[in-house]
Design brief:
With about 190 residues, the protein is α/β, with parallel strands linked by helices. The chain contains 5 helices and 6 strands. A 6-stranded parallel β-sheet has the order 1-4-3-2-5-6, with helices on both faces. The longest helix is centred in the middle third of the chain and has 37 residues. About 30% of the residues are buried.
Amino acid sequence: MSEGKTTEVMDKTKSEGKTTAAPEHSGSHVLVAIDKSKYCDDVLRWCASHLKGGATKITFIHAYEWNSAPVLPGPGFAATGANIVELNKHIRKHAIEEATKFMQDTAKKAKAMGFTPHELKLVNGSPTTTIKNAILDYTEKFTPDMLVCGSRGMGAMGRMFLGSVSDYLMHNCKCTVVVVKSPPAPKK
């Protein structure tokens, strides 16, 4: 990976509720989904422990999101419409810059933990698609051997109403998916 370079891009194994050992990954391409949640460090720690020296290629993927400014009809609509296009370009550019910095900072954190991603990939998670679909599309196009992602531990109700990215990926990716759960909080 060339330092600071982030690019934007656009054997199914499941362990239905069972705990299994980490799959063999020697000489493989491992895709690591990272986000800005507090669970990202758990994913990095798992990777540092299980991928060090084993994977031929490690790619960090992050689905960035941005919300476009709406076009509202009203006085000055024609002039405003042209400005909205420029405003949306600016909003998207800012989202990409922020996501790129996050990816670079996360890569530095991984390096400090003892492993280095070979690539950093940004995918557009919003408004054109969802985060889970953006990551799934990437796995279908670039066919990694394994996807590592975190779990927010929402529970059944949260998954039902909000939809779990990790659950969706586990059931729809064609590659092995490792879902890293956070360690339990210490009991008081």
